[in-house]
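lol ok so funny story. i was supposed to be doing the assay writeup but got distracted and ended up predicting the structure for this chain instead. priorities right. anyway since i did it might as well share w the group, maybe its usefull for someone
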Amino acid sequence: MSIKLMLEEVFKTEGLPEFTFVPPPNYNEILLDIRNSHKPVILEGQSGTGKTTCVRHILAELNPENKPEYLTARNPVHVSRIEKVAREQTPGQFVVDDFHRLATDLQESLANVAKLAADLGTDANLPKLVIIGINQIGSDLIQLVPDIAKRTGIHKIAPGTSADINKLIESGCERLNIKIRGSDAIYAETRGDYWLTQQICRSICTATNVMSTQDDAREIKFSIEDVRHRVVDQLRSAYYSAVKEFCRGQRFRPKNDPYFKLLRAVGQQQSSVVDLTEMANALPEVRGSINNIKERRLQVLIDGKPAVARSFYYNAETKTFAIEDPALFYFVKHLDWNQLRQDCGFREHEGEDFEFEIAISFAGENRPLASFINESLQTLDVPVFYDEQYEANYLGKTWSKQFAEIFGTKSRYVLCILDKHYAAKIWPTFEKEQFVPRVTTESVFPVFLDDTKFVGIPHDIIGMKFRFDATDDKDVDWPARATKEIVYKLIDKLSE
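and the output, tada:
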């Protein structure tokens, strides 16, 4: 009989699995590149594929007495150390995990160090870097320093095959002196995710009272639905609060649910790392929600809420959104979304589901004011249509058609900045033709910069009078006045 082991020693969800590690198919190729004393190595792939585990296993195999320095971008102290390594080109072996979370300039500095080490080889005493990150980190790094490609070992650890997962399960069962009946269903549930396989096997064992190596051989049965429920229930206390914080946005309003729609859509994907531009193009039902938050609002939300920042990652430049924790991704995939919607406090939309809360119509001379209002509303988590922000979304399309929809039907309200410049311009006039019929529905908010009259805008309509001249360099306090006299009034209206 083998030595008696505890369940948590066999099916491990934290740290390096001693008894259930399964090398990926390209394990030897990764080992060769890591063993090369001067060759930089990049491991990329979504969470749960075993990147960090694989690296640590290889390093332990190569030289268990001379461990490299492990640094992660999630730890501020480690980030300071990474900066020093990049700045001083510190000799030694360094594993840099969560590389994608580093600032772009620091990423580029490390890439240059890696290139130099690869160029000079054994002739220089430079850092040996092993970089770990999410999907496409290798290609992103190459874009920063293009000529690093041929000098770097770039590897992607794919999810385990059915044979890999069965080997993991069998290794654990052998140590615990058990047999899990119907274990093929585990692969169907995990799709080759190593971490999730460990977690599900552990849950199956705890449900059947297998807490350590059994004295007598046992065969245990399970229902994948019951196991899924147990896993999600166990994860609820750790993740539900952060998920709610994400879905409610930076500034909660009962009808402001684009984050909820985004997260629900991500939970329906196979990968926990998604390109939001591609997702918006592929899923018309959430396109408006994604386009409304991917340029600015999503980053503001993540930066503004620590619990959200710990759980979700977003790169506003590449539009890459990721749930890096495989446990959280599994939790999101199997949430009761109707219950979450109710717990968040969202109300069902009455009538039409608008893509924008406010669309801003203005003449080019007043762009500074329009831009300021847009940025202020975005910071307060209001979906706004502001032309410059959406140019990439409408490439190849005609503005006339898009403006007819945006100012006519896709926005809940229209904010029009009116003056003599507006009256003289073609495009503002076209926009006005689209929203003038909406004046009777009280969904048009005019900002009057002068006394110019407009057909279709009643002289007694209640609007906002504001003094603004973009050419007046002495008027330095107009942003403060615009905040008080325009932005706050709009927010009060939206909160009704």
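DSSP finds 22 helices and 15 strands in the chain. The two ends are 71 Å apart (CA to CA).
back to the writeup now i swear
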